[in-house]
Amino acid sequence: MLVGHKGIDEKQLRGEKVIEGNGSLVKQKKKRQVCRMGVVVSLLGILSALAACGRTGSGEETAAVPEYVFTYAENQAEDYPTTQGGYKFAELVKERTGGKIEILISAGAVLGDEKSVVDQLRFGGIDFTRASISSLGDILPKMNVLQLPYLYTGQEHMWKVLDGEIGDEFFAEVESLGLVALSWYDAGARNFYTSTKPIEKLEDFQGMKIRVQEAEVMVDMVEALGAEAVPMTYTLVYSALQTGEIDGAENNWPSYESMGHYEVAKYYTVDEHTRVPEVQLVSRSTWDQLTPEYQQIMRECAQESAIYERELWARREKTAMRKVVAKDCQVVELSAEEKQRFRNAVMPLYEKYYLEYMDLIEAIVAVGETE
User: Fold this and answer.
1) Which residue has the higher pLDDT, 176 or 35?
2) In 3D, which of 291, 270, 273 has the Cα closest to residue 152?
3) Which residue from 131, 151, 142 is spatially nearest to 173, judged by alpha carbons?
């Protein structure tokens, strides 16, 4: 088909051209016919190449056109374990749906901070995210039970709780928010670190000023241990330690190392006072678009990505610990007896904040006792 040609007479459309002066019209017509045949051959070649683009050498389609393209919000950096877990999830889903579902990860909080992302997820503005249970606790107080101080005897205890019936119960609670929970991610344990002296026993808290998150339960925890709690924005902690405004703070190994707090607080006490698991979520409105088959694939891929993320987190913790120890930081490991003293000191908080959930708390504690 000739398209877009204007001002061409009938002879030109037939490939003819009137030649003035000496010259053979017959020869000219033959030349035009050869030229036209060349164009046809070239066009056929282009069409064949275009047809081959969508096929492999065996004649199969190379890539399916996605039926769904979803958004996934992550507030951590690209190399953070939870972000890498999200990428693994997206990769597995794309692979197992034959490219029919594509999930686009947006790291570094480009889609908003964690709390605003959860709000958007509830109303379908974002499809997937990974959120700390702290972000859910404000709108679903029961979630805060999972981060009570000294609730778990250790990491294995927590995973036994979360990957069992109690974890499923919390997943069911999340649905009341218009969300579907897919898997639990790790965010490590929080420990105390100090600049003036190490915390080796409960009495060492006396007279110390410890920075905490701006949450009432964290303030009460530190004061129950015997120190003065100083609620403070995280970005101010380094300078506050450096100037002596505070004597210590608390956080996990990767944060302690990456923020350089080890430079101004050399003593790190492994008491594991809180473990704050994180949860992978999908909007209910997004979930309801999917077939049961796709939903099952999503759940399986989320669980596999969680195992992957937990392994990454464990490696990240070890790397951070090696780095700070190499910088002459002193690591204090509490005895089981001393750690129990810490726990006994904060027990009144359980009834103060979560009296209505005491049966649940006792069930979580009982899981640890059967290990």
Assistant:
1) 176
2) 273
3) 142
In 10 A of CB 85, how many CB atoms?
A: 29
Task: Report the percent of the chain where pLDDT is more than 90.
Answer: 74
Token code pair at residue 53 = 């683009």
Give the torsion sign (CA, 142, 144, 149, 155): positive
Cβ proximity of 130 and 281 under 8 Å: yes
367 and 157 Cβ atoms separated by less than 8 Å: yes
CA distances from 303 to 25, 172, 189, 286, 297 (A): 77, 16, 21, 19, 10
Which DSSP letter does residue 144 get? G
pLDDT tens digits for range 298-352 = 999 999 999 999 999 999 999 999 999 999 999 999 999 999 999 999 999 999 9
Counting Cα atoms < 13 Å in the Cβ hemisphere of 178 gives: 14
Q: In whole angstroms, what is the distance from residue 279 CA to residue 189 CA?
A: 15
Beta bridge partners of 333: 270
Backbone angles phi, psi at 130, to 5 degrees: -120, 125
pTM: 0.78
Cβ contacts of residue 364 below 8 Å, gap of 6+?
145, 151, 152, 161, 166
Q: How far apart are CA 290 and CA 199, in angstroms?
A: 52
C-alpha torsion 246→251→255→260, nearest 10: 20
Structure tokens at 141: 């107080």
Give residue 62's pLDDT.
54
Tell me which amino acid residue 277 is: P
| Pairwise CA distance, residues 227 & 242, whole Å | 19
Q: Which residues pair with 61 in a beta bridge?
A: 55
Distance of alpha carbon 350 from alpha carbon 238, whole angstroms: 31
